[in-house]
Specification:
The chain is of the alpha+beta class. The chain has helices at 77-82, 103-112, 114-140, 147-155, 173-179, and strands at residues 17-19, 25-29, 34-36, 44-50, 52-59, 62-70, 74-75, 89-92, 96-102, 166-170, 184-185, 191-195, 210-212, 225-230, 233-238, 245-247, 250-252, 260-262, 266-272, 280-285.
């Protein structure tokens, strides 16, 4: 049977699931009911069959909406794979039906569905790449005899030759206050945006090209997102930030199906730190 979901404070408990035979179950939720809550054990992955839900992060006394999941999308699958407690709360925004898939059954499903396996492998590969990048930057800064050679290897991919002209511009008063109102030309890729570390924090392993002096409580992570080039495209990749990144209304990050999204020619909207964050930008490719 599915573990009993816990409601957000003041919300009713979610309705019970219907057994499909074996370990898979269907769960029906009304609006405002909770699929799972931040801190719960990651016993099941969920496939949203109909309806939609908000993904929420409790940050101190605030509850921040990171984005939404919709029919056809998995949610909670990374917690199942990593064996970690839920990093967010998922609450229905409409009548919702979801399939609950127990961990072992989910792993078996991954092995039998090549496309699902491919998506998960791409996502895990991106996260490993982030770790490799951090280690490379740390190594390059150690002052060892071959550090200069290592730095050359790191900086080489930063050229945006054959890619379009790129600018990043703040679109909200809060963002303009911290980074200015003039568009920022992006002269190299990758280009990382984050915040300056707080008084008792260490610097990010990857130093941001744009370090925002945001005061606490923070909406930005120290290395929040990066613009990168791949096969002639420009992409935005969330760097496993605490509150995620929203690109053209598509949420990215640890609690969503993808960590990256391609940008199109013209203006692209980008919000760092969940819905309602003051750090809203437009990235223009021309």
């Amino acid at each position: 049977m599915a573990s009993k979901t816990k409601p957000v404070v003041g919300q009713p408990e979610a309705s019970s699931g219907k057994n499909l035979g074996g370990v898979a179950m269907l769960k029906h939720l009304d609006p405002d009911e909770v699929l799972f809550r931040q801190g719960d054990p990651s016993d099941f992955a969920f496939l949203v069959l109909s309806g939609s839900a908000d993904v929420l992060r409790e940050a101190g006394e605030d509850t921040i909406v990171l984005g939404s999941v919709h029919a056809g999308e998995f949610v909670g699958e990374m917690g199942v794979l990593e064996g970690r407690p839920r990093s967010a709360t998922v609450r229905a925004t409409s009548s919702l039906e979801a399939e609950l898939i127990e961990r072992q059954a989910f792993l078996e499903r991954v092995s039998s569905e090549p496309e699902l396996a491919r998506k998960l492998l791409v996502r895990m590969s991106a996260r490993l790449r982030d770790v490799d990048d951090m280690l490379a930057y740390l190594y390059a800064g150690k002052g060892t005899e071959d550090a200069e050679d290592r730095r050359d290897l790191i900086e080489a991919p930063r050229s945006i030759e054959a890619l379009p002209s790129i600018t990043l511009a703040a679109t909200t008063y809060g963002a303009k206050f911290f980074v200015g109102s003039e568009p920022i030309p992006i002269a190299h890729l990758p280009f990382t945006v984050g915040r300056q570390p707080g008084e008792h924090e260490t610097a990010a392993a990857i130093a941001p090209d744009l370090a925002v002096p945001e005061p606490a409580p923070y909406r930005l992570s120290r290395a929040h997102f990066t613009l990168m080039g791949r096969e002639g495209e420009v992409l935005v990749r969330d760097l496993n930030s605490a509150l995620g990144t929203i690109v053209n209304d598509r949420p990215l990050g640890r609690d969503f199906p993808s960590d990256s999204a391609p940008l199109h020619k013209g203006d692209n909207t980008l919000v760092a730190g969940g819905r309602g964050s003051p750090f809203a930008f437009v990235v223009t490719l021309s």
